[in-house]
Design a protein that fits this description.
Chain B: GO terms for molecular function: lyase activity. The complex is a heterodimer of chains A (about 525) and B (about 100). With about 525 residues, chain A is of the alpha/beta class. Helices cover about 25% and strands about 20% of the residues of chain A. A ten-stranded mixed β-sheet of chain A has the order 1-11-10-7-2-3-4-6-26-27, with helices on both faces. An eight-stranded mixed β-sheet of chain A has the order 15-14-13-12-16-20-24-25. The longest helix of chain A has 17 residues. Chain B has one domain. In chain B, helix 1 crosses helix 2.
Chain lengths: ~525, ~100
C-alpha cells in the first residue's frame, strides 16, 4: 500500500502490526481513551534499597517492557548499570522503550540483542554502532521510531505499556521526590522522564544523592515512585552537554543563520509576543544571536521559546527579551544549571510539549520553528533519520511535532555536505511530511513552499533575500556533486517511522553491502 | 609515460582525495576507499581512470582514499600524483584537465 507521501509500505508488516498508513498532518478531533498504571499500594516507607539486582528480580519478568530517559545523554551511567544486571540475570524477550538512545548505550544494547534479552525497540532515534547494527538486520523485529509527542501519546493510550521504568536522577529524597536540577550530574528538565513516572507500573529511581525529606521542587513525585536505589555515581556531568556553547565561525552556517533571521524578521509573525523554537546545531545557535539583535533593534520581545534549550536562549530570558522558556530538555550545562535559578524557565513534560492527542500542546502555540535536515526533497519532505548511505543515524526528536504545530516552519541546511546533496529529488526516509514545512534556507537561496503564497509575497519584497524554487536548489546541488547511484536495500523492513498520530510515514529497509 | 617513483597528491581532509600512484603492469589497478563509495564509487573510478589515460599512463597501481571530493578535485589530485610519479612535475600538463 502507498501512503500520502507516496511511500510504498510493506503489506505484510503493516497487517501483522495492525498499522495505518500516514494520511495527513491534520489530526481532527478524535476521542481518545487513555490507560492508567497498576499501582501497588504502600505507605512509602522503606523505598530506599541498596540492591538494584533484588529490585529487578522481584519486579521484572520475561517479555516485559522497560524504559529509560536520555536526559544524561553521553554522561549516562544508569542505563548500563541496569542492563548489565538484566543481561546477567538472563532475562529474555524484553521490549526497550526509552525516550531516546545515546551513544554510550549502543554496545550494551547490541550485546542484549545478540543474547535475546532485547527483542523489540521503540525510540526517538539511534546513532553510531547501534544504527549500523539495526540497518544491517541485527534485530529481528522492526524498530519503531516515534517522535517525542508520539511517545507521550502512545504511553497515554497504552500502545507503549511500560512495566518497569528505570529513571536516573541527580537528586531525590527517600520517598522519591526528585528533580534534574540539583546534585552532581545536573541535566535540568526531566521532561521526557515525567511520562514514564506517571504511566509506568513500577518506577525505580536511581540516584547518587539522597537528601532529607521532603525534596522540592519535585518534578517526579513520591506518589509515583516504588523504589529509590542508591548508586555510586549516576552520571558524568562533563559528558551530559557541552560546557559552553561555542558560536560557529563557519561562514556557510553564519550566512544561513543571517538569512533565517531575515526570513523571520520579514514574516508576518515577527511582532511583540511572538514565539520560537530553535535546535542545537551551529546555524540554529547563530540564529538566536542574530534574532537577539533584531529584537533589540525593533523593540520586540518574545512571549516564549520552547524545545531543547541552550544557554543562548536562557541569556535572552535573563535579558528580558523572552518572557518564558518552556523547557522539555536542556542541551548544555548553562541551560541545565539555570533552571534552578530562573522561575520563568518552566519544566514541561513531553505531553505538554508536543503530544498530538491531548487538549493542546505548546507546539500548537508556536509561531516560528527552526529545524534541521539530513535531506529535504523537492516536495519539502524531510529526512532526519537515515544518512545518504541509507543507514540509521538520527532521531525524530520533536521534528514532526514542532513542524506540525508552528505557523512557520523553517528548515536550515547547507546545499551539500561533502559530496552528498542535502536537497534531493526524493529523500531516503520521510520523517516529516512536506505539508508541514514552509521555508527552506540554504546558503544558495531561500525556497518557500508554493502553498505559502503569502510568505512568497512577503519575502519577494526583501532586498538581498534570494528566493529560488526548491527544484532549482536541487539542480544546483546535483550540478556540484553529480548524480549518485541509487542505494540498494533488501526486502526486509528493519524499522518503521511513525507519524505523530501513530500512522506510518515510511519504513527503513535493510541495507545491502 | 614511465612511472619512476611513487607519486602522492592530496590530503585526508574532508572534501579532498589522496591519490598514491606506483608502478604497475596490469592496466590501471585501482584500490578505492571512499566515504561515498556506494553512491559515487563508479563515478570516482571512471574519473581517475580517464584522467590517467588522457595523461598517457596505461599501467599503474593507484591507491585512492576519498573523503567526499568533487570530480574537479579528483582530476586535479590524480594528475598531480601522476606527474610526481613520472617526475614530470616541472611541466604541468593542464590540458589533461
Amino acid at each position: 500500500m502507498e501512503n500520502n507521501v507516496k511511500r510504498e509500505l510493506p503489506e505484510d508488516v503493516m497487517n501483522d502490526m495492525k498499522l495505518k498508513p500516514f494520511a495527513s498532518s491534520e489530526l481532527g478531533h478524535p476521542e481518545i481513551q487513555r490507560t492508567a498504571p497498576v499501582v501497588r499500594v504502600t505507605t512509602g516507607q522503606n523505598k530506599v534499597v541498596d540492591s538494584l539486582e533484588e529490585v529487578i528480580k522481584s519486579n521484572l519478568k520475561d517479555g516485559m517492557t522497560i524504559s529509560f530517559h536520555h536526559h544524561f545523554r553521553n554522561g549516562d551511567f544508569a542505563f548500563n548499570k541496569v542492563m548489565d544486571l538484566i543481561i546477567k540475570l538472563g532475562y529474555k524477550d524484553l521490549t526497550l522503550a526509552p525516550s531516546s538512545l545515546t551513544g554510550v548505550m549502543n554496545d550494551k544494547i547490541i550485546e542484549a540483542i545478540k543474547k535475546g534479552v532485547i527483542t523489540n525497540i521503540t525510540s526517538s532515534g539511534m546513532r553510531g554502532s547501534l544504527g549500523d547494527f539495526v540497518s544491517h538486520g541485527g534485530l529481528k523485529n522492526p524498530v519503531i521510531f516515534r517522535s517525542h509527542g508520539n511517545r507521550a501519546r502512545s504511553i497515554e493510550n497504552g500502545e507503549i505499556k511500560i512495566d518497569v521504568a528505570f529513571l536516573g536522577v541527580p537528586i531525590s529524597d527517600p520517598a522519591g521526590n526528585a528533580n534534574g536540577q540539583e546534585g552532581n550530574a545536573v541535566f535540568g528538565s526531566l521532561g521526557y522522564a515525567l511520562m514514564d513516572a506517571q504511566y509506568a507500573d513500577k518506577v525505580v529511581l536511581l540516584t547518587d544523592n539522597i537528601v532529607p525529606y521532603p525534596n522540592t521542587p519535585a518534578s517526579i513525585k513520591q506518589d509515583q515512585v516504588d523504589y529509590v536505589v542508591k548508586v555510586d555515581q549516576i552520571g558524568d556531568p562533563d559528558k551530559i552537554g557541552s560546557g559552553a556553547t561555542r558560536f560557529t565561525k563557519d561562514p556557510k552556517e553564519l550566512k544561513i543563520a543571517q538569512m533565517v533571521n531575515q526570513v523571520i524578521v520579514n514574516s508576518p509573525y515577527f511582532k511583540d509576543g511572538f514565539s520560537f523554537q530553535t535546535g542545537s546545531g551551529g546555524a540554529a545557535l547563530a540564529v538566536t544571536r542574530y534574532l537577539r539583535q533584531s529584537m533589540l533593534d525593533n523593540n520586540i520581545t518574545a512571549s516564549f521559546a520552547v524545545g531543547g534549550i541552550t544557554k543562548p536562549t536562557v541569556d535572552l530570558l535573563e535579558e528580558g527579551l523572552v518572557r518564558k522558556v518552556m523547557d522539555v530538555q536542556d542541551f548544555d550545562k548553562g541551560a541545565a544549571l539555570s533552571m534552578a535559578q530562573n522561575r520563568n524557565q518552566q519544566e514541561i513534560d513531553a505531553s505538554w510539549y508536543a503530544d498530538p492527542h491531548n487538549k493542546g500542546a505548546v507546539v500548537n502555540n508556536l509561531d516560528v520553528s527552526i529545524l534541521s535536515a539530513l535531506q529535504i526533497d523537492t516536495n519539502f519532505n524531510v529526512n532526519v533519520m537515515t544518512g545518504s548511505d541509507g543507514v540509521i543515524r538520527g532521531a525524530v526528536g520533536g521534528h514532526q511535532d514542532s513542524a506540525a504545530g508552528a505557523k512557520m516552519t523553517i528548515i536550515t541546511a547547507p546545499l551539500v555536505r561533502g559530496r552528498n546533496a542535502t536537497v534531493v529529488p526524493s529523500v531516503e526516509t520521510v520523517v516529516t511530511p512536506g505539508e508541514s514545512i514552509d521555508v527552506l534556507v540554504t546558503e544558495r537561496g531561500v525556497a518557500v513552499n508554493p502553498k505559502r503564497q503569502d510568505l512568497i509575497d512577503a519575502f519577494s519584497k526583501v532586498p538581498g533575500l534570494t528566493l529560488v524554487s526548491i527544484e532549482d536548489l536541487q539542480k544546483m546541488a546535483e550540478k556540484q556533486v553529480g548524480v549518485p547511484k541509487p542505494l540498494e536495500y533488501t526486502d526486509r523492513t528493519v524499522a518503521i517511522v511513525e507519524y505523530r498520530d501513530g500512522s506510518v510515514i515510511d519504513v527503513i529497509k535493510e541495507v545491502k553491502d | 609515460m614511465e612511472i619512476k617513483t611513487t607519486g602522492v597528491a592530496g590530503t585526508l581532509e574532508s572534501s579532498d582525495i589522496q591519490i598514491m600512484i606506483s608502478k604497475g603492469s596490469n592496466g590501471i589497478e585501482l584500490d578505492l576507499d571512499s566515504e561515498v563509495k556506494k553512491a559515487y564509487g563508479d563515478q570516482i573510478t571512471k574519473v581517475i581512470t580517464e584522467t590517467l589515460q588522457k595523461f598517457g599512463l596505461e599501467n599503474a597501481k593507484v591507491k585512492a582514499t576519498d573523503k567526499g571530493a568533487l570530480d574537479c578535485v579528483i582530476k586535479a589530485r590524480t594528475l598531480a600524483a601522476a606527474q610526481r610519479a613520472t617526475e614530470t612535475s616541472d611541466e604541468p600538463e593542464l590540458e589533461v584537465l
